[in-house]
Amino acid sequence: MRNLLYFCFLIFNTNFLLAQETQTQSTIDEIIVTASFNDVDSYSLSSSVSVITENDIFRRNANHLEDLLFLAPNINYSTGASRGKFYQVRGIGERSEFTEPVNYSVGVIIDGIDFTGIALGASTFDINQVEILRGPQGTLYGANALAGLINIVSNNPTEDFYSEVSGSISEFGGKDIGIVISDSNNKNFGYRLGIKNSKSDGFIKNIYLNQSDTNNIDETITRAKFTKNFDTTELTLNIFYADIDNGYDAFSLDNTRVTYSDEPGYDRQKTNAASVKFEKTLKNDDVIELLGSFADSELDYAYDEDWSNTGICDGTPCDTKLFGFDWWYSSFDSFNRDNQNNTIDLRYISNSKNTNWVIGFYNRDQDINLIRKYTYLENDFKSSFDTRNSAIYGQLTNNFTNNIKLEAGLRFEERKANYIDNNGPTPEGFFCIAIYPKPESCLFDNNYSRSENFWGGKVSLQGELNENLMIYALLSRGYKPGGVNIEGTINKQNLNYDSETMWNYELGLKANNQDKTVFLQTSIFYQDRDDVQTKQSLVTSIESGIEGGDCPCSFSDYIGNAASGSNYGIELELLLIPNNKLEIFSSLGILETEFKNFISYSHINADPSNGIGYDLSGREQSHAPKYHFNLSLNYNLSEYLFLNLNFEAKDEFYFSDRHNSKSDHYNLFNFVIGYKKDSYEINFYGKNITDKDFQTRGFGSFGNDPRKFYITEQYSQYATPRIFGINGKKTF
Asked: Cα 633–638–641 angle (5° rounding)?
């Protein structure tokens, strides 16, 4: 740490990176973070945060949040769907959701609307910036932000009339077009309206159906923002609509981008959402804020479970029958959810010279109704999961001197959850014939109610060594609710799982130089986790019903607890503008994770029938790569022409906590050649130009290929191959 301080003093006090052309020197714009009680300069925030700008979004041709996450250190995602909609921060986060109610570790907020769990709709169309806050956000957002928060902020109405047309074309049938119009009336009333449609055939070739669009993208996003200013009052209304109709056919028996499915799946979302923010400034400059939001989403997700077709064995060694019947299986699984989410957040913000404080009240109601239709269920699985979160929170900021600031926040939250389905275990005193699937007479309601109280918060101490160098120490606590596993085959030992808590210890440094041509932020952190929630799965033979038996198999997900775990590492972001031609950005994440005192009975190497578990103590947690590096160079070739080169690298990581299959480590190279003049910009881009195969989701505890008689092997979903395209926009 001392050497790092000396290094920063050297940079910011000797001015050795001063531009050669000082009169026209480009400088770093102020970076404002809105995911706090007050809009704060990133330099003044005592926590780790990455801000991705509108310019970054456009030049990367990013249509979805997953296209941007490589820019921030220690951020990962998993797919198992048409897009990466499950996020991990510092190795913590969910990887999937099927029948079980999931409590998320990473919150997603779009214009004040809670998109946690419905992040397929996390479009980047007409977005001003994406803020990624790492570490627990217990004071601000509570139960859904144990690991961190992703806050997405759309563009505001312009002061004068503005219109924009943008579009792109790319390989694999990629094309999109967007339109935006905006204006303000005497600066008292403003509006901004936008609509965009994005399409792609996807990167999969289904040779059975002879189609190249079974994993396609078809997304329409509509945004509207209205602002009204009175003398001391500001009103903001955001309206959001998403109509997403994507295909899902991503897993290949050959671990390629060539599939054999006869019933390709889908990944769909229709969301109607809105938020209203009321801000009243009082005579003493204190502020009353009221934020209300709702989101009503229909989520349809389905897949061909066997990844094959009934004729895949024709003319091969597996083309045999057992007792006169085909012995291989064919099944289709679909999940249809109705997700309704309403939030109200009322806060009073006191602003004074040396001491500021906030007190707030929060309420969140969410209702999720699920219908599962599955080949091996005689009757549809139906469930209802209703939760209510109520919280009171406060934060105090005190400036002891001009250079030392203390900030403390605390949140108390009560969560009530009610769950019911039609797939409960057989009650005592009843007798059912043990056949699969269950007949209607053996279906009983499985229900539970659970109420928990939580507390979280933070304490930070910040010191400015000079006007260009700030250091901070942060202690924060986050929490995540427990629950009950609802699958009827789960044994009593695995029926309940406990809430998880985490202490985050962090030391950080942020610095810039006098000329605003360098910005550096770095931190070291240690996260101590108790009752770590882990995703497990029971793999059961369809033929015999034996857990761990011969495949073809069915799968029952559930959540368990490891005794504890730790996540620690280093994060660094550096932005340099040496002169008016060159801009350099780099980020680095180093991450170490491990389980402590964790015996897993669902691991592929366990023997649950004989009570023998598999010791995962000391093993890395899943989806937690040890390093993540990004380097971007932007060079102005002339007044209007620029070149952007980007290099990204990520280490291998485990796909799951129940097997030992890993992704490959990889290096990616991307480029943009752009021309920008006056009111238009056009870019030619290439992504993954070395055509590197890299995985975003994987399995390794079962076999699914009848041609190999269902031997256990690894299966992976691959990300985008090499792709070239052109995008552009014209403003009026």
From this structure: 70
Would you state the structure tokens that stand for residue 228, as one six-digit string? Answer: 């009204």
Q: Would you place residue 428 in the very low, low, confident or very high pLDDT band (cuts 50, 70, 90)? A: very low
Cβ contacts of residue 666 below 8 Å, gap of 6+? 649, 650, 692, 693, 694
Range with top average pLDDT, 37-51, 72-86, 349-363: 72-86
Q: Return the structure tokens found at 691.
A: 């055509």
Residue 694 sits in which domain range? 2-731
Residue 283 makes CB contacts below 8 A (sequence gap 6+) with none
Starting at the earlier edge strand, list the strands of the sheet with 113-114: 48-53, 127-134, 148-154, 106-110, 113-114
Sign of the four-CA dihedral 371, 374, 380, 385: negative
Which amino acid appears at position 230 of this protein?
Answer: F
φ, ψ dihedrals at 485, nearest 5°: -75, 135
Q: Which contacts (CB < 8 Å, 24+ apart) does range 367-372 have?
A: 367/338, 367/339, 367/340, 368/101, 368/337, 368/338, 368/339, 368/340, 369/337, 369/338, 370/99, 370/335, 370/336, 370/337, 371/335, 371/336, 372/99, 372/333, 372/334, 372/335, 372/336
User: Of 722, 718, 709, whose CA–CA distance to 259 is shortest?
Assistant: 718
Tens of pLDDT, residue by residue over 305-348, are 999 998 898 888 887 766 555 678 899 999 999 999 999 999 99
Tokens of 676: 């920008």
Q: Hey, CA dihedral for 695, 701, 704, 708, is it positive or negative?
A: positive
- Alpha carbon 79 to its chain centroid, in Å, reads 10
Q: What is the mean pLDDT of the chain?
A: 89
CATH, residue 115: 2.40.170.20
Q: How many domains does the chain have?
A: 1
State the CB neighbour count (10 A cutoff) for residue 204: 26
Answer whether 125's CB lies under 8 Å from 111's CB.
no
How far is the CA of 69 from the CAs of 74, 78, 108, 647, 724, in angstroms? Answer: 9, 11, 13, 14, 20
Q: Tell me, what DSSP letter sits at residue 157? A: P
**624/325 Cα distance (integer angstroms):** 44
What is the Cα–Cα distance from 207 to 284, expressed in whole angstroms?
A: 69
- Buried b / exposed e over 340-364, threshold 16 CB at 10 Å, is ebbbebebbbbbeeeebbbebebeb
pLDDT tens-place string over residues 166-180 = 999 999 999 999 999
Determine the distance from the C-alpha atom of residue 730 to the mean position of all C-alpha atoms in its chain, rounded to a whole number. 31
Report the pLDDT value the prediction gives residue 251, as an integer from 0 to 100: 97
Q: Give the number of other CB atoms < 10 A from CB of residue 577.
A: 22
Overall pTM surpassing 0.90 (yes/no): yes
Name every residue whose Cβ is closer than 8 Å to that of residue 374 and which is 6 or more positions away in sequence: 331, 332, 333, 334, 381
CA dihedral 30, 34, 39, 40 (to 10 degrees): -50
How far apart, in whole angstroms, are the C-alpha atoms of residue 337 and residue 367?
A: 10
Cα–Cα dist 698/715, whole Å: 6
| Per-residue confidence (pLDDT) for residue 378, from 0 to 100 | 85
What is the DSSP secondary structure assignment for residue 64, as one 8-state letter? B
For the CA atoms of 650, 698, 707, 248, the dihedral, rounded to the nearest 10 degrees, stands at -110
Burial class of residue 5 in the structure, from the number of CB atoms within 10 Å of its CB (0-12 exposed, 13-18 middle, 19+ buried): middle
192: its two tokens = 């901004």
Angle at 462 between CA 459 and CA 463, to 5 degrees: 155
